[in-house]
Amino acid sequence: MSDLLDKIVSLSKRRGFIFQSSEIYGGLAATYDYGPLGVELKHNVRERWWQAMVYQHDNIEGLDAAILMHPTVWKASGHVDAFNDPLIDDKASKMRYRADQLIEGYIEKLRKKGKEDEADRVYQRLVEALHADDMPKALHQIIMDEEIRSPDSGAFDWTEVRQFNLMFETYIGPLAETDNRIYLRPETAQGIFVNFHNVAQSARQQVPFGIAQIGKAFRNEIVARQFIFRMREFEQMEMQYFVRPGDQMDAYEAWREKRRQWHLDNGVREEKIGWHTHEKLAHYADAAVDIQYEFPWGWQEVEGIHSRTDYDLGRHQEFSGKKMEYFDPQTQERYLPFVVETSVGLDRTILMLLCDAYREEEVEGEKRTVLKFHPKIAPIKAAVFPLVKKEGMPEIAEVITADLRGRFNAFYDEKGSVGKRYRRMDEAGTPFCITVDGQTLEDGTVTVRDRDTLEQIRIDKANVARFLEDKIA
Prior knowledge:
globular, Rossmann fold, 7-stranded mixed sheet, BirA Bifunctional Protein, domain 2, Herpes Virus-1, 5-stranded mixed sheet, 3 domains
């Protein structure tokens, strides 16, 4: 299945979805740039998330908090002391792995071999290790006892398991002194929590209500692999939903289903979407579940839904000395709201959509590569072709293109045979192609080709925009 990922990486570069960052200098590991098609795809996904979270709910407000925050924010949130990954090194290959994920991979192999009892035994040990006082030592002992080998070298020559803090540090002002040290935010949620009262008061919202944000976050990932799945600079789409204490489980269940449906509405195949309930909860949570996708290398998290209790507001109240309590006008009570979080990785969502849309098919004896994006998220909604570059066909095609561009992203192409132009648009995931031909000069109709069914119909050139809007909607 890694062959599929290689094909997606190659297609992404060739067609302008995603490039290696700083490639002319040899690249910078685990950082990527979005090209012309990638920018459009990312923009469409962002817009659909904002539409679903903010515009379709009258009690959810938007926010764009600063990346740089007061360093005490991260002390209060627990990131300074507890934002660590348990990592282990293979001495033979010099590769570094997350110890817990290494064990999970071993358990998955046992299950594929039909060794369910053995897999259950190791799984139970993993759960106990994740809750142990000395987690690194407990994870290392499992790896030693089970003789888990390196996925890359096959060697059984490991270092101890160590904890690494994932936050990037920088400094405010001209001097790199400890007093001036701050962090690049490792998540976007804390910007929401510290602005809880600012948003509630300015937007005149009452609990329950939510605050949504899309923004960059930064993590010094030691184990950064699988293309854009795990990067050091990435984008999150998060919403924190504030509720009365005791109401969090109802909100948690409701958001679980809403968020799963959003991914399905983006065209992701239902059989590729799954759930993973956390065995070890984060220090702030009383319930947590991941929405997972079956990537070419296995099931992995795309989005997390967490019931965070009142931990965050309570910690910021403690560290700032400012009251974070909410006065409920309905009950005349003061309390710290509980929080239900939905947090989805935008870059992971892009990779999921690329993997899910990628197909290799045979059409009339020829192989075609096609990205079957849902029309709503496709980077280019329609391409317009003149059959030949003469007889006034280019001029008609350009007028149609200009009309479409007033409504959505359209592309004009007159180079190469129509068959080659179709193939280029298939690779870009364009759902509809419009061809101006000789019949257009006679009766004013054009050919519209559907990317998925390959069906071709003729419609009046004046109706193209409305036809496509109906199809996309």
